[in-house]
Amino acid sequence: MVKICCIGAGYVGGPTMAVIALKCPSIEVAVVDISITRINAWNSDQLPIYEPGLEDVVKQCRGKNLFFSTDVEKHVSEADIIFVSVNTPTKTRGLGAGKAADLTYWESAARMIADVSKSNKIVVEKSTVPVKTAEAIEKILTHNSKGINFQILSNPEFLAEGTAIQDLLKPDRVLIGGRETPDGQKAIQALKDVYAHWVPEDRILATNLWSAELSKLAANAFLAQRISSVNAMSALCEATGADVTQVSHAVGKDSRIGPKFLNASVGFGGSCFQKDILNLVYICECNGLPEVANYWKQVIKVNDYQKNRFVNRVVSSMFNTVSGKKIAVLGFAFKKDTGDTRETPAIDVCKGLLGDKARLSIYDPQVSEEQIQRDLSMNKFDWDHPLHLQPLSPTAVKQVSVVWDAYEATKDAHGVCILTEWNEFKTLDYQRIYDNMRKPAFVFDGRNIVNAEKLREIGFIVYSIGKPLDPWLEDMPAVA
């Protein structure tokens, strides 16, 4: 019986291994993590992450051929294939600070694998890692091998949160990078055989190690670039009276471009886009390609600009001050159908409003008060370290209250900011919300999900990103 072990029980490791267990009943899959609370959650009825369809998959396999354990060394030593899905945060100090990936957790995982292994292993990079990480890991393993043969593969994930289970069940492609040696090719085939249980052969692509690593960074950079492109256009639309949804619809009808990732918004978030682009920038700089580095930097700059522009719209619309005013924030996760808040635009928007002394009342159907308070009080890259290494009890932000109902959040508020495109926000009773708000009552739609005309008929002053401006807003500065 083939045994698979995954080090890291997070957003990638947990769902990926659950689907492998579901589709490969003859393979024993163990997910290990040093976090006792996280493993306990995976073994409970309240999984540590929210992802549609995940609970069903886990319950079908858990205890049969899918196991969650803190006994890391036991499962690593017994495994034939080891997936490594540990954090790769952005460095905050030292060489490459603010751009380069911190490989501390990766390196310690590699050293532990070398220490406990008594048989040949295939070690698979599953975390998003900078190009050439495999080479570094290979060096650690071969220099500590004690005669054991380690083969390193890169198998980047291409999951979108909110649809991760579907992405795993029906992937566009599975990418496996390995050495172009007989042993390397055998290792690629062994991993191909796992995925071939349910993925058509023509969708399993084999490349060299570096191509696989770079493909992941390139894919995320291209997707983020599309979002920043349409967001840059949204600013121009507001300035000229064009409608960004009409523009993006027309552009998306071109078969060479396509319609995906062309929705204007308050900005992109998630654990990968910014981190991977910073990583790409660093690699370009290290390889003497400053023009290429600057090109990709601009994608992040436009994203930051979009968040700042949104905050400035809110403040300038409300008589240039939100000091002491209650602002309702609907949605904190970086997108709908996930509870993930990593790099969510809501953090920067909320911090911007708090900087002007607003009082915030936040509602998100999947994000806890504890998580929101942590996010608003943590330093920029702290979120990407394992939980036990994050600040233990960040100080709560006093001007923030977290409530469990959109109507409670909006009661007595001066303005409403919609920051996540949860379906329930489209069907709220906005007449009821308006009746209970201070006047003039404002709605700032950061996701373009509400019918602005209907809201204006009720009496709201409405700002929708990239749409023709409400007369109230026409003479207000978009950028401070």
Summarize the model shown:
The chain is built from 17 helices and 14 strands. With 480 residues, it is α/β, with parallel strands linked by helices.
Q: Give the strand content.
A: 5-15%
Q: How much helicity do the residues have? A: 40-55%
CATH architecture of the largest domain: 3-Layer(aba) Sandwich
CATH superfamily of the largest domain: NAD(P)-binding Rossmann-like Domain
Number of domains: 2
Per DSSP E runs of 2 or more residues, the count of β-strands stands at 14
Mean pLDDT: 92
What is the strand and helix layout of this fold?
Layout: E1 3-7, H1 13-23, E2 28-32, H2 36-42, H3 54-61, E3 66-69, H4 72-78, E4 81-84, H5 104-116, E5 121-125, H6 133-143, E6 150-154, H7 164-169, E7 174-178, H8 182-195, E8 204-208, H9 209-240, H10 244-252, H11 273-286, H12 290-317, E9 326-330, H13 345-355, E10 359-363, H14 369-377, E11 400-402, H15 406-410, E12 415-418, H16 430-435, E13 442-445, H17 452-458, E14 461-464
Parallel strand pairs: 1-2, 1-4, 2-3, 4-5, 5-6, 7-8, 9-10, 9-12, 10-11, 12-13, 13-14
List keywords for this structure.
6-stranded parallel sheet, 41% helix, Rossmann fold, 480 residues, single chain, EC 1.1.1.22, UDP-glucose 6-dehydrogenase activity, alpha/beta
